[in-house]
Every structure is written in structure tokens, then in C-alpha cells.
Write a structure and sequence with these properties.
This protein is of the alpha/beta class. It contains 9 helices and 8 strands. An 8-stranded mixed beta sheet has the order 1-2-4-3-5-6-7-8, sandwiched between helices.
């Protein structure tokens, strides 16, 4: 076999380098499939968030009969460690992802310890309230009559007020399906529905919110048709968020990264994109900044 000339070797090396750069660029921009799998294999998705080694605060769990959801729903109120149940704290409503319930925030994310850690780091104390929103109804009114939006506003918030929590100004936090729900709830104008408003969402945090630009891209069953999708869209509703502070965080390999970035830019929201995919480990890594953001906004 004839040896390659020095010039031929240089041409071959240059071509290989161009191909390598093009491949990496295509992977990083999503032009080639399998980017998330390759990043995971190479350890480029970032470390999973580790639940802080701090004491959990009090968690009070109960149920109530929801007329809006036409069922009995469970809920939990989570306090920072060292804070009594009689404390008149502001509250953040925490909306779970698909397949979850009111226990998911503690069981899957360890949010009770993240809350204690946030307060120990200097955040003004606040409580978290989680509730069953339905495993896959995407936190909006469905043809079945199940309406978690009304449940949150007209049932859960008054219940929390009776428990001594301050609900005149509250925050919202959710991940995946719950991230979408938190954004949707913050954008809703209840005056248009004939419901008097005496409570206001002042801040919303979304982790990898389940957002789609087009109905055809949405998860099966997430909406009751194209009209329902349009009625419950959050993209393109900038004016509805004008009085709400928004933070949106998402992993770069998350399937919702593109739409999340579009909404973050549209709203000039806080947050950003970082290494990671649609996983609880990634959401745990984002939680400290989210809770700090919500605590500061509630204290303003």
C-alpha cells in the first residue's frame, strides 16, 4: 500500500476535523438525533441535585371535598424547620407533574428540606402548599367537569387562609405538567369569569414547564381538542403576566427547552437553560434558585 504524501495527510486530517466539528455542532444544536443520550453517556447533563442535609419542617396533610374537581383531594402544607403551625406565613402553591399527587414534592424532590435550606440561607420564611390536581389533566378545566384551576382559587386558597396563612399575595411553583399549570394559573383573569378577585399571584416559578407551540405537538390527552389548547395557551399572552414576576428554568436536553426559552424571552423572565434533561435530579438542582426567587418576591 503506497504511503500518503504529507499534503494528503494534511488534507485528510483537515477533513476529519471539519467533520468532527460539524458533528459536534449538529449534536449541540439538536440537528442530529440522540443528543440527550450522548450527553448522558458522556456525563454532560450535570450532577443531580442533592437534597440538603437539613431538618425537615412540619408537614400537615389532610383532605377536602372539592366541588370543582368533583372528588376528594389531598393536600399538604409544608413549613420551614423551626416555624410553628400558628405562624402567619405567605404561601407558595406547588403544582405536581404528570402522574403525581400532593406528596410528590416531598417524596420525589425533597422540597421540605430545600425550603428549610432556603430560609436558613436568608430567605424570608414562607410555607408551601401542595394539592392533588389530577394525574394527567394538565391543571385546566376538562370536558369531564374537572376544574383544578377553580379548585386552587376558590377552594384551596380560602382553606389555607383559614389555617392562618397569608393568601392575599401568593406564589406558584410547578414542574413539567405543574410548571405549565403554574404559569396558566398566574395568567388567568378571574374577573372575566365573574369571580371576585381578592387574592393575587405575585410570582411564579416553572421548572421544565410542559409547553407546546402547536396542538399537534401536545401530549395525547393533555387537551380536549384544538380549541381547548388555544384557550389554555400561555405563549403569546405577555400582557397577562405584566404584574407577575416569572422565573423559568429548563435543561438544555429537555423536550420543552425550545418552548420554555421562547416564553422566557417573551416575558423577559428570570431563569435560564442549563445542562440537564427532564428529570427530578435536574429539577432538584434548580430548586434552590427557584425558592430564593419566590421568597424574595413574596417579601417585596
Amino acid at each position: 500500500m503506497p504511503l500518503l504524501s504529507r499534503r494528503a495527510l494534511l488534507r485528510t486530517a483537515a477533513a476529519a476535523a471539519v467533520t468532527s466539528v460539524a458533528t459536534v455542532t449538529a449534536l449541540e444544536t439538536g440537528a442530529l438525533p440522540g443528543r440527550a443520550r450522548i450527553h448522558e453517556t458522556l456525563g454532560l447533563n450535570g450532577r443531580d441535585g442533592v437534597v440538603p442535609a437539613v431538618p425537615a419542617g412540619l408537614v400537615v396533610a389532610d383532605t377536602f371535598a372539592s366541588a370543582a374537581r368533583r372528588t376528594t383531594v389531598g393536600y399538604s402544607v409544608i413549613y420551614p424547620h423551626g416555624v410553628s403551625l400558628s405562624a402567619e406565613l405567605p404561601v407558595v402553591l406547588v403544582l405536581h407533574g404528570r402522574g403525581g399527587d400532593h406528596t410528590s414534592a416531598v417524596n420525589d424532590l425533597g422540597i421540605d428540606r430545600y425550603l428549610t435550606s432556603a430560609v436558613q440561607a436568608g430567605s424570608p420564611p414562607f410555607a408551601l402548599a401542595t394539592v392533588d390536581g389530577g394525574q394527567d389533566n394538565y391543571w385546566h378545566e376538562r370536558l369531564t367537569g374537572d376544574d383544578p384551576i377553580v379548585m386552587l382559587d376558590q377552594e384551596l386558597l380560602p382553606l389555607l387562609a383559614k389555617r392562618g396563612l397569608r393568601t392575599e399575595q401568593y406564589g406558584l411553583l410547578g414542574w413539567s405538567m405543574g410548571g405549565f399549570g403554574a404559569l396558566l394559573f398566574a395568567a388567568r383573569d378571574f374577573l372575566q369569569r365573574g369571580v371576585p378577585v381578592d387574592r393575587t399571584a405575585v410570582a411564579v416559578g416553572a421548572l421544565s414547564p410542559a409547553l407546546w407551540r402547536h396542538f399537534g405537538d401536545a401530549a395525547p390527552g393533555a387537551f380536549d381538542g384544538a380549541g381547548d389548547f388555544g384557550d389554555n395557551q400561555v405563549l403569546g399572552r405577555r400582557d397577562d403576566f405584566k404584574d407577575v414576576a416569572v422565573r423559568i428554568d429548563c435543561g438544555r436536553d429537555d423536550p420543552f427547552a425550545g418552548a420554555a426559552k421562547d416564553l422566557r424571552m417573551e416575558l423577559h423572565a428570570a431563569g435560564g437553560e442549563q445542562a440537564g434533561a427532564h428529570t427530578a435530579g435536574c429539577w432538584r438542582r434548580m430548586l434552590p434558585d427557584q425558592l430564593r426567587f419566590l421568597g424574595e418576591k413574596l417579601a417585596d
